[in-house]
Amino acid sequence: MKQDLTLHVNGRGYDISVEPRKTLADALRDDCGLTGTHLGCEHGVCGACTIIADGEPLRACLMFAVQAEGMQVRTVEGLAKGNEWSPLQKAFVEHHGLQCGYCTPGFLMLATSALEENPQIGDDELRDLLSSNLCRCTGYENIVKAVRAAAAEMEAAR
Amino acid sequence: MTRDAIGQSLTRLEDPPLVTGRGRFIADVNFPHQLHMRVVRSARAHARIVSISTEAASALPGVYAVWTAADIPEIGPIDFREGKIEKLEPYRQPVLAKDMLRYVGEPVAVVFASDAYIAEDAADLVEIEAEDLAPIIEADAAPGVFAPGLSTEAAILNQGFGDIAAAFANAHAIVEIDVKIGRHSGVPLETRGAIGRYDTARDILELHGAAKVPHKNRESLAKVFGRGTTGLHMFEYHVGGGFGVRGEIYPEDILVLAAALRFERPVKWIEDRREHLVAANQSREQRHKIRAAVDKDGLLLGIDNEFWHDQGAYPRTHAMRVADTTCGILPGPYKLAAYRAIGHYRLTNKTPAATYRAPGRYETNFVRERLLDAIAARLDMSRIELRKRNLVRKDEMPYARPLSVLEDDVSYDSGDYAGLLDKSLERIGWDALQDELKARRAKGELVGAGLALFVEKSGLGPTDGAHVRVDTTGAIEVITGGASVGQGFETVMAQVCAETLGADYRNIRVIHGRTDRIDFGIGAHASRATVMTANAVRAAALNVRAKALDVAAELMQSEPAALDIINGQVVRRDAPGGASMSLGQIAGHLRPHSPTRRGRDPGLSCDGWFDSEHQTYPYGNQIAVCAIDRQTGAVKIERYVIAYDIGRAINPMLVRGQILGGFVQGLGGALYEEFTYDETGEPLATTFADYLLPTLSETPDVEVILAEDAPSPRNPLGIKGAGESGIAAVGAAIASALDDALGVSGAIVQLPVTTQRLKRILRELGK
Ligand code: FES
Ligand code: FES
Q1: Could you tell me the residue range of the domain that residue B231 belongs to?
Q2: Reported pTM
């Protein structure tokens, strides 16, 4: 039985109708047309589906869409302000932090939530954080570099 | 940016959509009225099908159809890409299992439904009744029966040269090892997916979600459906990693097309991760019993290489290529007088195997470098000295030997193997490092250093083409038959075109993976794209340049040789700041109705072709420093150096990216990743919780030495491939370092060296 609900994503309301078993990731992709959130395992391991809900990074494959009702959800599509990319988006390009780009939205959202909270995040803490997502292409080094560079920029802008 | 785009670490043209959520991967693509397909897979490793019941599934609301093999009698088993191979024909995989189940994960039935969730529910309702048979799990066990009269030893491969018997008869010493490489694979972060679509209005069958080799696959698929290649087109979208696995023809590709044709509705299939880990090609699993004959100075007289290749349940589109490459490339950078390879190509009841990044090289680098370490230990010689004595020398290039890889005779084009080794040894400070490690070991630490050398291969031809065109606004389109699997293909091609033509690379759009835009294409496999397609792009851009200068010379009352193109503007060489004409204006003069065209072919556009007779052979070495934790058996990589000579790097940043990414995959295969099976053939690694991809915490810093000392004489750009260098020798170098840490040569005989295996080794050695 489908259920009507409103998802708040990137500051916009999406009125959708989904089965209770539909995951938030599938609802974002299929019902809101926001396909930037990717699925790599649907199992909570890879982090490709990482979004930010009420300020916290979450795995959208582990959550049902109905549970997200009333939450403020942010996805990769909401990172740029118009044509102005966020510092992390810029840094990923500058530092070659992506190859196929499949893991990238997840890493961007994970790092965004962390840096918004604390751009002075320490090296160990950052490595710990980024170890929770998988990338099969880059070998991670450039992802770390990109996040470090963005952190410096965000810190300077504070 | 104009004339010096090649060699620059430019940012990628691919990135903007990918960092803003605007990428389009196959799961993001939808067509109106589409059906969703779900595959019902075998839960048994080896069984005879008694019955399949589909009634309950068909009855579920939303289900459109359910197919078993009986519903598609017109579709035969999946063919080999490079044509008929008589002796393997009877072993080919049916699109849906007919009588036999041969591995867990084998497609048995498919459900088509209006919604992916419903398709999955319905698939659970399909019941397969079958009689279990004894599975074959080990490729080196006695061969079994595949079908009456057909052994599971489907083929034996042979390569070799020289008098192997004499080599061993005259040996000062004979050194033998018995080593194994575990089963692992590419495991891209995006799973596979495909959409079949039949355009009834134009009678064109379309496969969306192509990858790797769209043109080759189009030919194969057109044959399956009895169509000409003009009636079937392939469309590539963003691809979330290829690594050799994505883009082969699998049963699912054929099924979505067959269903789209039959139902006249688009049919979409997206694989889930568990499926991927049992259904997509696995790779690498080989056991080698290998022995070397050496003289008293450590010179290699002969190598005798017998191996068992675990192909899994069926040959796949590659047929025997991995095993064949294993035969041809094993000698690597070393000279030897005699060589014999005997490869047992064996079928087992596991997921079928095929290529994974550096196929045949990750395996043989491990095996050969283990052998070299064993020889060094036997002769009490340093590992470095032994290698140096046997390396092919710079002045011996090009160096041919009577072996073949991918049906191409092995002939190393250029290189200074010893010189590059010296660079790495110097970087890591090898001699001082040995003293330091010795001191640490004396204090009880298990720490050691190891190295491995390797020769890669890239750029198999024979021919690739490209088309370059400039529109009247000056925008440039490069149409290739290449494929992009996330490696930066568009940027690299744009850089080559920009430099050759004299334009800004950001003004260039690169087309790939579209069979409706260009007739031929070699795709992206075996590190071919850069070598073959880039040289074709260069040829096409040179032709466009010549045409542009010819027109401009006439209009500017000059000679082509007196003109140059800078940043899309034709200028006089002697007065670059003076009068100029844009490429867009020249394209305007070449419009069909333009009076200034003067009999030239319309359009500022040209084809270009590149032919190559032999592959190019990049090379490198890797040095690892590893410490073992006695308690946990965990390995910590303290330092890692990768030296690689790429001939000429078009974009060093991207090459480094390829090396680093490849390294981490190699690390996975060396220490963590393995597709294990229990004795019933049940796969034990079916989620990311059991199949362990390295994360950032397992990843050490890697020092890369990117050399351009030996450009390839085999193409005008001098380039060699980059894709497989980082991964190629990781297992080999880490094994060598772990032996050193344990103080026992030959302690490591199997990859991956998991913590469990290492703990067992520690126990056995009493460490
Ligand atoms: S798809 Fe959600 S964690 Fe992998
Ligand atoms: S860039 Fe491909 S998975 Fe990270």
Answers
A1: 31-133+194-239+246-263
A2: 0.97
